[in-house]
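The freezer alarm interrupted the setup, so I double-checked each line after restarting. Inputs confirmed:
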Amino acid sequence: MLNLSGLTKHFGGVRAVDGIDLAIAKGEILGLIGPNGSGKSTIVNLICGLFPMTAGRVIFRDVDISDLPPHARVDRGIARTFQNIRLFGQLTVWQNLWVAQNSGEQRHKERFLTRWFGGARRARDEIDRMLEFFNLAHKRDELAANLAFGEQRRLEFARALAAKPSLLLLDEPAAGMNAEEIDQLDDRIRMLRQDGITIMLIEHHVELVMSVADRIAVLNFGQKIAEGTPAKVQADPAVREAYLGTAAA
Amino acid sequence: MDFYLGLLQIIGVHTLLGLSAYCVLLTGQVSLAQAGFFAIGAYVAGMLTVLAAWPLILALVVSAIAGGAMACAVGFPALRVKGLMLVVATVAFGEAVRLFFFNFDYQVARGDIRIGPHGGEGFRQIRYFPEHGWTTLDVALFIWTAVALVMAALWWMDRSRSGAVLRAVGEDEIAAQSSGINITAVKVTAMTIGGVIAGLGGGIFAHYTTHIEHVQFGVVLATFAIAYPILGGLSNVFGTLLAVIFIQGFLLEGLRFLGDWRNLLFGGLIVLAMNLRPRGLLDAGSTIALKRLFFKTKE
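Predicted 3D structure, all chains:
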């Protein structure tokens, strides 16, 4: 579904991402872990096109999207959340989803007139369902800025889904959440997989990643140092070294 | 009576100017080019009615289109920069327009007088209203019809998805892009709508003052344009209207009896108002309070 080849990003002299090759299959949950500053978020930003890459290609569903602007990539079915939550604070919860509901792929399928009549109602119902799923229905008309932290994380997750992605990039969705909220997150990620959404999960919370991910890739200093099933990665000496800073082998 | 009608006319035209900046501000862009679009509208509409003897409405439509077309053309390069750089770029554009009209000479002989824009002396004798027998009241009603139509259109847009999209871009461009919004298209569209409104306002302005010249369209006017929506708050279009009434009606006219002290107070009161109401005279909170006052809300 997504193929990264030789993905490279240099910020001045810093090699934030240095020749990453990574593939995600359809319906898979790929965990991306690594110490702070290892280039995880930079990879997400490059996939989304927020800044130009130094070298490499991003291939999504066999199409090279390396030169597309961010909104065009959303149209093709890539949506994301942010590590430091970025909501539209002065818009209501409902409006936050409304704005994102460009429904990229779907928009082009629907004819103009069907969208004009009846389309709006369906769109509204969809947003309400989404708020229900994320347990935010009671906050519908609240300003996003006034939500509690956990609610903001959920809203951002919902906003990413409102764009109807086939590939969802979650950038540390569990950061700052308590155990119960992480459990709910775990459930939601599994449910989305059942709906056929492919997920790339960037996370520090190792338990969550080990629990939901089918496959894990480990980054250190912008390079991929390990890749495989959770069990295999956990046993990898290079990974232990990156995290614990000692020569385990 | 005529004094108050005249004041109403000024407030109406300045409301249009403020609303043109309001559209652009919603997307988070500070543009000081609105006076330039206003000037273009004024000269275009004036020349059409005076030199080409067009009917007023048609001339205003064309002046609005001219303002919008110029805003769209300026928007593409200008909106590549943000913040202070955009302010500088739009000030430069506004001054370029002003200097263009300073040098713009296009006079035509009508009998033994020459009419049309005459460089630094400006464009005199835009006498559509008196020639067609409009009274001051007629003109005031005409202006306020235009204001009401523009406000209604913007109010409707504000409540539609497009309004939410404009505000989303103003809130966080990166999040907006990542939600599938083409931010360049949104910003240029907002700029174009702003240009249309400024062009319309300029066209009306030329006809009620009957005499326009380049000095009227300088940085001061551009600053007023941006000050109205900032002072009034961006929660809805009525904030801008309120700010225009506050500045033009209360500060400029209402304090006239203070003589020279007025100018000192003018700046001071604006600073005070912005400190007391940092989110604008009419912020989200007071909008809700007003709604509660007039409509019984279902709890």
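Quick read of the result. The mean pLDDT of chain A is 87.
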